[in-house]
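Predict fold of Phospholipase_D-nuclease N-terminal; 71 aa.
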Amino acid sequence: MTRRRWRDLTPWQRTGLVAAGAVQLALAVGAWVDLAHRRPAEVTGRKGVWAAVIAVNWVGPLAYMRWGRRR
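Predicted 3D structure, encoded as tokens:
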């Protein structure tokens, strides 16, 4: 099985990958900005741990938005 390279992808596949990467980056940046502006009392757990969790692809930012913030 050969590895697919960027040049082997169709234009639609390239667009999809770039869009998915942009959404993933936007989620992470949004979560990190939110985390930076919250007081420690407004975060479930330690802020340092959540900062590391946010770095995990799609799961991290979504987990922080769901379980990391206190109301």
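The radius of gyration is 16 Å.
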